Automatic annotation (TrEMBL):
Pfam families: Ku. The keyword Ribonucleoprotein does not apply. It comes from Streptomyces sporangiiformans. Keywords: DNA damage, DNA recombination, DNA repair, DNA-binding. This is Non-homologous end joining protein Ku. Homodimer. Interacts with LigD. Gene3D superfamilies: 2.40.290.10.
Amino acid sequence: MSHPCLGRSPMSLRHGPVPPSRIASGRAVRGGELRRVAPGVHPQHYWTRSSSAGLSRWSSAGPLLPTKNHAAVRSKVRRRLLWRRLGDMEVPTQAVWTGWITFGLVSLPVQLFPATRRRGVDLHEVHAADGFPIRHQRVCQAEHREVDSQDIAKGYETPDARTVVLREEDLEALPLLSKHVIGILGFVPVDGLDPILFSRAYYATPHGPAGQRPYALLVAALARAERAAVAKVTLHTRERLAALWPRRDTLVVQTLLWPEEVREPGNLGSTTPVTGQELELASLLMAQLPGVDLAVLHDDYAAALQQLVAAKESRGQLVSPAEPEPTVDLMAALEESLRKAAYHGRTPD
């Protein structure tokens, strides 16, 4: 079978750089893994640069430009290792952090496990012309060759453009207390935390018999006071603010963004004044509309994607949902909404 791009068998293909405009997403990967790399291809055609805290991945010979896809694959495999299914429940199998929580002179050993999971459909990057997968490599810029994972370290760029190579053992020696200790700095009302600061949630569990009693005490004290503890913790080479509060007799460690990481909205909102009558009708409408049970809501994206794939395979047509029209008469729209809400809210005799 000839390949539409190069006129040779797909399994003997050489990789070459694919323009971004020719990369698409595929529902499933077709064909085998292509291993050969075209000589002389500059590594920048394969990689996009991203960094965290000024660190990027380096080999002993030079810099590596990280790939988003490679990180996503590693993250997906890691998520599978952290949890396993036991009957109808998922139970943690591997902690992402082990250390101590301290408040006053009380200290308790804990482990952290992810409290959330990402659900959805995974799409793969494919060549739009033939549907074959796009493979990213870890390529050294100096030697123009792929580098094994054990030869990759972190690189910190100094103000005078020098690069200091940091290996795992160097980062382990980082003089930072929050690498192993979540030290409680104080307490705030739970409703006093701005939700825009929330980042990632973890469950903290007592590690060993010595942590059981102080753990139960901290959870009970926070629940009784209806307050959250504020602390700092270092996860994945970054120190974060964290809020600790109880959830179903379990301590949640919610990492927070630093205040300087949050952008202010500026003039993104509307400065148009509203009338008292409009505000009164809007308040009545909010009171008329039913509450929402989040547990019964679900993600419709996967089902819509299945419809798209089926239509593409059968060359059928999809009917897109109608988009709303701009509201011209605000008062008339509010009054009609109230009438409909009142009608649907009536109970039969």
